[in-house]
Amino acid sequence: MSDFMGTGRRKTSIARVRLKQGTGKRIVNGRDLDQYFSRLALSRIALQPLISSNVADKFDLVASVRGGGLTGQAGAICLGAARALLRVDPSLRGPLGKEGLLTRDARMKERKKYGQAAARKRFQFSKR
Description:
Layout: E1 4-10, E2 13-21, E3 26-28, E4 31-32, H1 33-36, H2 40-52, E5 59-66, H3 70-88, H4 93-98
Parallel strand pairs: 3-5
Antiparallel strand pairs: 1-2, 2-5, 3-4
Helix pairs in contact: 2-3
């Protein structure tokens, strides 16, 4: 059986996720997933598609992720793993879709505007 690839994006993070049949090893950028994401919540976010489809111990996950922070990277791995699972078994589209794991989170940082302190914050107003 070959590898199943999926690409995930979140904020400015991009993850390339490869699933292959194995024993449940999880490697992100050459390190163990739990070691890469120091917070347990981020590890759970990244593995949510595998856990919800009950295949966490049947596939090895190897992810290459770059850009953004750890939260965005975990979300990118989540989307990439969900897309790779669809290539493994297209019948998972319903359950994964119901949990919102196939939807790309389009929220990005709003750009700073000229004449303002930040994206929406204004400089202090003075009448004089």
